[in-house]
Amino acid sequence: MPAVIAPAVDLVLLGGKLVDGTGAPARVADVAVKDGRVVAVESGLRAEAGQRIDVTGLTVAPGFIDSHSHSDWSVLGNRDAQSTIRQGVTTEVVGNCGVTYAPVSPAGVDAARNALGAYGYEGEVTWRRFADLLDVVHRHGGGTSQNLAWFVGHTALRDAAEVRGTGADADGITRMVRHLEEAMDAGALGMSSGLEYGSGRDATTDELTGVAAALSRYDGIYASHIRNRDAHLLDAVDEFLAIARHNNLRAQLSHLNVRHDTGASPDAWHEAVGRLAAERKAGMDVLADMTPYPHGIGLATGLLPGWILADGPAQTARLLDDAEVRGRLRGDCDRYWRFVHKGQWDRVVLATSPATPELEGLSFPQIAERRGQDCWDAFFDVLQTAGADMHAVQLMGRLFTPEHVAEAIAHPLFCLGVDGFTSRTDGPLAERTRHPLFFTGHTHYIAHHVLQAGTLTLEEAVRKMTSMVADRFALHGRGRVQVGAHADLAVLDLKALAAQDTFDFPGRYAAGVPHVIVNGRLVVHDGQHLGTRAGHYLPRS
Length: 541
Known about the structure:
Layout: E1 9-18, E2 27-34, E3 37-42, E4 49-54, E5 59-62, E6 64-66, H1 82-85, E7 89-94, H2 109-117, H3 130-139, E8 147-150, E9 152-153, H4 154-160, H5 170-185, E10 190-194, H6 205-212, E11 221-225, H7 233-247, E12 250-253, H8 268-281, E13 286-290, E14 295-299, H9 306-309, H10 313-319, H11 323-330, E15 348-352, H12 364-371, H13 375-386, E16 394-398, H14 402-410, E17 414-416, H15 427-431, H16 436-450, H17 458-465, H18 467-472, E18 489-492, H19 494-498, E19 515-518, E20 521-525, E21 528-529
Parallel strand pairs: 1-4, 1-5, 6-7, 7-8, 9-10, 10-11, 11-12, 12-13, 13-17
Antiparallel strand pairs: 1-2, 2-3, 5-18, 14-16, 15-16, 18-19, 19-20, 20-21
Helix pairs in contact: 4-5, 5-6, 6-7, 7-8, 12-13
InterPro entries: Amidohydro_3, D-aminoacylase_insert_dom_sf, Metal-dep_hydrolase_composite, Metal_Hydrolase, Metallo-dep_Hydrolases_sf
Domain Amidohydrolase: 53-524
Protein name: N-acyl-D-amino-acid deacylase
């Protein structure tokens, strides 16, 4: 019997135009993959291959890396990463904005289970430590289709350490640091904070500085959804920079933008970016990221003042039954999305509301009309009905002007991310993600900002979505198509992308990315998800 001769390589992409992630001009090249790595990049490649895919007329790029994702919320209900992997996203940096569901205290288990249930997870919260959650996601249950690199959330550290109220004392900081060190030992990139909502809003600068000090021992990153992005933007940026400077940390300022018509001075954003540039010149490793649309997601409780949230969401719901309390709130919700205080409720859609799913996808004027009340009472009713689970209520808002989005995307200090989470077209997630952000957020950068608006060249857009992100988070061997790199690859059909209206909610998965390879394995082939879960956990290098 003749010997079986193994192919020289596993897979070859033939005849495509290569945009390699470095920013270099596109060129025609074949790409060969073996054992999860790129082993050849050259024209006219001759090699025996287990699979050959003709990509003539298509564009080959590194798999996109989402620099700012919340897919840790939805991955347990969507391990196949349906909506994102089909856009060519092979890696997501998750755990942002302070909100992770580990570590978790015994008292926080029910809230975590209910919140994750809204994103399609049907299991129990059996973990307590951050490392235990990583085991559930990556080592049990079949893994994931995409690679994930994780931050641990400061708000979760507060919960696990049972820190309540304004400013942790020394003992509280010690407990938080212990949980942070456990997460860093498990490979977390660093700590994220979210300072406009929830328990994070109660954290003082001293608390954040004290906890973040532990990151310096690990060369960890401090990432922050800063305290304000309207009239007090510059104060919030200064706080962020002071925390990083004091501890000599690498720092990532999440979605640095200014919400439209919320009191910021006309030059506030430019001044903020200038302060980042000055810190970089002085030696700080600091960058920012931006999102693709004028819209963004937010937590509904972020609009509420601290006094009504102080005793927990169940008590908040009881207080919302009082007409006098509601009257007081109407004059005391001038925070977070401050434009609603001006009556601009038409800019807000109810995105996720497990207790009132029939209202999801409606704007607040639509909800108010349906219920025969004004927008404030409609908002308060949604939160009151949610009760103890009101922190799971999410909004989608029209936050920025298109001109501001384009300027931030094009700025050299900004990586590109989406600030959403992987979704799917069926189940609970389908009902809660009725916006193109979740289904075409990544391809929108190419379809709109490159091919239609010309905000960026194709090569620069791909660089900002691949090698720039990989370098920022030390994801070694990713973000470039070069010999020796991990074989995370996306094949783009630019003609199909140019024909799409990525401002419109498609109700289906994105078109225009026919093939996606993760760690050398085909996950999407001819536009169909193969069910392959080739993703890896990417611990801090």
